[in-house]
Write a structure and sequence with these properties.
- The longest helix has 19 residues.
- By secondary structure, the chain is an alpha+beta fold.
- Strands 1, 2, 3 and 4 form a 4-stranded antiparallel β-sheet that branches.
- It has 1 helix and 4 strands.
């Protein structure tokens, strides 16, 4: 949970690397909205990719808030 949003870090395996990715969800007007965040950045360690995915999702929420779903 972050500022009313739920973040699900979901790094994508890409060979021996893991692409930064996360699903961001929030209920708006009684309807669940979802945004899939996928970055070109990759990391060798899955744990580091999870941490980076969370950090990037928080940054996107800080920058865009509910506009993320428009």
């Amino acid at each position: 949970e972050y500022k009313g949003f739920t973040i699900y870090p979901e790094p994508i395996a890409d060979g021996s690397q893991h692409r930064i990715a996360a699903r961001i969800e929030k209920e708006i007007g009684g309807q669940m909205k979802s945004h899939q965040l996928i970055r070109a950045d990759t990391l060798g360690d899955r744990g580091a990719a999870v941490d980076a995915s969370l950090a990037k999702a928080k940054q996107v929420i800080d920058e865009q808030a509910d506009r993320l779903f428009s």
